[in-house]
Amino acid sequence: xxxxxxxxxxxLLILVVFGVLIITFVITRLIPAHPELLWAGPHATMxxxxxxxxxxxxxxxxxxxxxxxxxxFVRGDWGVSWRTRSPVLxxxxxxxxATLELVIVxxxxxxxxxIPLGVYAALRRDRLADHxxxxxxxxxxxxxxFWLALIVQLVFGSWLHILPAxxxxxxxLVLRTGFHPxxxxxxxxxxxxxxxxxxxxxxxxxxxPATVLSLYPMxxxxxxxxxxxxEVLNEQYIRAAKAWGLPGKxxxxxYALKNAIAPVIASLGLSFGYTIIGAFMVELIFVWPGIGFYxxxxxxxxxxxxxxGVIVIVAIFYSVINMVxxxxxxxxxxxxxL
Amino acid sequence: MGVFEVFIPLHRKxxxxxxxxxxxxxxxxxxxxxxxYYMAQRPTSTSTTALSPTISASPTTSSTSSTTSASPTxxxxxxxxxxxxxxxxxxxxxxxxxxxxSTEFSNSILWMCLVYEPLLWYxxxxxxxxxxxxxxxxxxxxxxxxxxxxxxxxxxHDGTPVTAxxxxxxxxRTIKLGQGAAFIWDPVKEIKTPDKYTVVFILxxxxxxxxxxASSYGAWIFSPKVVELAGAKNATDKxxxxxxxxxxxxxxxxxxxxxxxxxxxxVLEKFKDxxxxxxxxxxxxxxxxxxVFIIKIVKDAVTQExxxxxxxxxxxxxxxxxxxxxxxxxxxxxxxxxxxxxNLLMLINTRKPPLDNVLVRRAIAHAIPYEDIVTVARSxxxxxxxxxxxxxxWGHFDNLTYTYNLTLAKELLxxxxxxxxxxxxxxxxxxxxxxxxxxxxxxxxxxxxxxxxTVKIRxxxxxxxxxxxxxGWNNSKAAQDLFIFYWWPTYITPxxxxxxxxxxxxxxxxxxxxxxxxxxxxxxxxxYYEGIDxxxxxxxxxxxxxxxxxxxPAVPLWDMVDIRVARANIGNxxxxxxxxxxxxxFAQVLHVKAGG
Amino acid sequence: MSxxxxxxxxxxxxxxNPVSMLGLIIVVTFVIVGLIAPYILTRPEEAWxxxxxxxxxxxxxxxxxxxxTDEYGRxxxxxxxxxxxxxxxxxxxxxxxALLIGIPVGLxxxxxxxxxxxxxxxxxxxxxxxxxxLLAIALAATLGRGLTNTIVALxxxxxxxxxxxxxVQVNSIKSLPYVDAAxxxxxxxxxxxxxxxxxxxxxxxxxxxxxxxxSAILEAAGLSFLGVGVPPPTPEWGLLVSMGWQxxxxxxxxxxxxxxxxxxxxxxxxxLADAVREAMDPRLRKALIMKGV
Lengths: 338, 596, 293
Fold this sequence. Notes:
- By secondary structure, chain A is mostly helical.
- In chain A, about 80% of the residues lie in helices and about 0% in strands.
- In chain A, helix 12 (about 250-285) runs antiparallel to helix 14 (about 305-330) and helix 13 (about 290-300) runs antiparallel to helix 14.
- Helix content of chain B is about 35%, strand content about 20%.
- Chain B has 21 helices and 17 strands.
- Chain B has helices spanning about 1-5, 15-40, 45-50, 55, 75-80, 110-115, 165-175, 210-215, 225-230, 240-245, 275-280, 300-310, 325-330, 360-365, 370-380, 405-415, 435-450, 460-470, 495-500, 515-530, 535-550; strands at about 85-90, 120-125, 130, 135-140, 145-150, 190-195, 200-205, 255-260, 265-270, 290-295, 315, 335-350, 380-385, 425-430, 455-460, 480-485, 555-565.
- In chain B, strands 1, 8, 9, 10, 11, 12, 13, 14, 15, 16 and 17 form an 11-stranded mixed beta sheet that branches. In chain B, strands 4-5-7-6 form a 4-stranded antiparallel beta sheet, with helices on one face.
- In chain B, strand 8 (about 255-260) and strand 9 form a beta hairpin.
- In chain B, helix 14 (about 360-365) runs antiparallel to helix 16 (about 405-415), helix 15 (about 370-380) runs antiparallel to helix 17 and helix 20 runs antiparallel to helix 21 (about 535-550).
- The radius of gyration of chain B is 27 Å and the shape is globular.
- By secondary structure, chain C is mostly helical.
- Chain C has a single domain (about 5-290), classed as MetI-like (MetI-like fold, Orthogonal Bundle).
- Helix content of chain C is about 75%, strand content about 0%.
- Chain C has helices at about 5-15, 20-35, 45-50, 75-110, 115-130, 135-145, 145-175, 175-185, 190-225, 235-245, 255-280, 280-290.
- In chain C, helix 4 (about 75-110) packs antiparallel against helix 5, helix 4 runs antiparallel to helix 9 and helix 4 runs parallel beside helix 11.
- Chain C is elongated.
- The two termini of chain C are about 20 Å apart.
- The interface of B and C includes residues 305, 326, 432, 446 and 449 of B.
């Protein structure tokens, strides 16, 4: 692997983040008629509005405003949320682990189920199983996550009482067992502390939201795997290997899957963006205290500083993930280097 | 990531793939660690810091009142909780805001009423004053000198006694900071402390200081020691506010603040030295009050409902109103309703044609289906408003409801010169995300359509619609036509409603742009007589409301009825609710059985 | 390249597969219902949200109210039916507007090339750096709620995809011999661009755009659910789901049926898209043509 590529990719990332900031600047400062009113928040007095004008440098030319806008972001001054009244950066970062944990689990589910499903479909190409899997995966990409979340919550949480309908962990259990989150990743924290009851409880709380969230990447994963496997299975060397009498299953897994895996990972990286927006709605419905919940609540109450903060952090995160995926992809499959 | 392992041993290049996987994981963990580190750095609020081992490792037994360090010990609930202590968990829909008793003017009232005490409490249903830190008070004949006698056995949570000095200190800090509800003390000229347990207020003009002292905001008494504890120069030093907001309290109430995580939960623990526990016949206490009272932030009604059904919480602040009838049938639950002094009004832009015509406004008032709104928006848990003063409050009169009469409305509209309806659509704004306002707005739209008025509904953030309404003072044409709007009083007086919403001196909230000198004079006079001659004040308030009824600057829609759903074993819940202190549960009066 | 025969082949391929055919039927039904919905309502006033019926609140599904009634006593079947029209408007509006921005940008960037082209594509890339929907959410939150604003917000987050697609197409067509020939013959740039390049680049992108309508409906529903889409009482499906959420324990049908409508419609578009994509895959097509489909 070349260092050059990585350096280039990081440079691109910085450029992208810069672009994201410029776009959010345009959206929040140039489009609204009175950005200071949006920034100052509810029940603002005339002095507070004037102060907001000064803070936003609205009396200066646009490029000066942009300069301060960028400077504040770099400095970590992301404004104060109207709703929670605490600094946006702090809110956003403290909500991050809950969301990451949920999304990571969702992706694990997606990969663990999606890839075998895709492989199976490819092996049974054009037979009934393939058609069924195809319809299911298309369905997975067609269902609105918020609706599915509501339905499973209603059915499993309220009607059948099988799984907890909301929240991340039973707070009473937390108090009783003296669980102290360290990293904010409750599964990890519970394991580190050897707190099995909390670990199991967190896991139980996670099943419904993570499954709902995993549906889209799972469908994508299965479809990509299938498409690539079909392609690879047709290729010469597989046929050659089969001709040489290597056992069928071994051939499939060792050679075909190997060539299919890199693009699948790359496409999962792209679906991360979609999944995190899905998390906005899923977290809102399951009262999951992550960035999605924060974002949804901010949107519902039009809390502008918080909305901007969420947009920037999600966009940055998305870009970073894509960079990592690209780099991995390049390492696994040197042909794709740009 | 099992997928990598599949082919690692098969190829020479496997090493670099393993490296790639490791790099990826390292990067992800790095990002996470940076985030976690950042959070650990922040001194405030999150549960990570609030329960950090350094704090819980030093269990300074707080119950012995002589503790010199007043740092609230966080240890007890998290470590020694289950052993026989009774816990009540209350779910609040909104996050807590600040923890400074002088300036807080929002949701934190929920716990401040338990941690801090005012001089007096007020029971608005029976129009009765209940002693708190003051056992009795007198007022001079002209209503300008108020003398309060303090009880001798009250102590702050830092162990120091509650004295006249402390009262003066607290109220003066609130006045000097001038934020939040500080305006309630506007009438006060001077506070005197003739002896250790007597406080005298000299007023600039007569005012009902007993009600003011019982206000739900800005009337808390706290220990002067906070200056020293915060390491501040004086009471108004920002360090004191920071000290409060870091999760400290120094009130005299029945509970102490032991955990402050405003976005997730607030934990209160019984203050054993509270004077009220020892007073046999004090109405605001119970011998089986919970030892620990936890306020959990649960931000939606459906989840609160599920949690109270499963027993995860004991009291729900909000459940979907549609479900209340079903919940009533559940033997494990109880449903408690109580009046609330919050009401919903529709403010009308009285300066924007054609709404400047009083006949048009009257037509609108008669074309609103009040009963249906109550049924749909609140599932019946509200009362059709009769004037801007809510039911149950003094100053409310029962004959001020507009009839729902479409024929009359059409006639009025025709008389105003619009027999075929209004020539332009009216813009109605309401607060985005408020389901009750949204339903009300939809019904108003549907109903006004029947008399030829088209309504455009626009949900907006509170600040946007308020700024829009504010702009109406300069250019009423630019502002919305109709504005759905909640009001609730800071302290219990009709003046609070009438002045803020309808006196043109109140530029902030008179968003009907209504200006009527006769009305202004009436309510001012009524306010003057409140402390001296209540019957006369009442009569003047009635006259003022009759003017509003004729002029229709706003249409009062409904007065809220509060619903709380609790586990059946929470005793005396009805008494723990007082509409003068919205959202508060006075936990000290609850009956809870140990182990229940 | 673009000719009726291409669409003909595509149609034949679709007809061969019952699943794809199902997609086609759903899409056609959706479009027809969307067009005629306002004229076939049995309770138009309730559907438009200017009438209500307090006595009939929360009625479960029955022959009289196939989808039940909501908290205002409005017939959900009529509301969902009218919602079809709004979804159709959103789908066409978003995709149309995105094409209107994306095609010129991609065309200019691809044909003119050089610094202008690079700059245009850099801007496009910056928009693409946003996770899908996030930009739309940001815009919708700034613009405020409304049907037009929702369409604009979604279109602004979509055009870069089309710009990119056109850019790639133009680049590959640009160097084809017949374009060179046209240039040699002394035809002007504009003529070449509009007469020779655009028509050839257009077919794949219009097919793509038509099939993207499913995603547009899905994303608009998401915006409405998050409270930044269309305002009530518009019977947009996402909004209907969100409005029913409050009473879901009492009346599951209020949220269920509008959501089902979204699922079916989007599924139709996606199944069709799937089939078309397969049909456009050159290798597969060759095989099928050889088989004599």
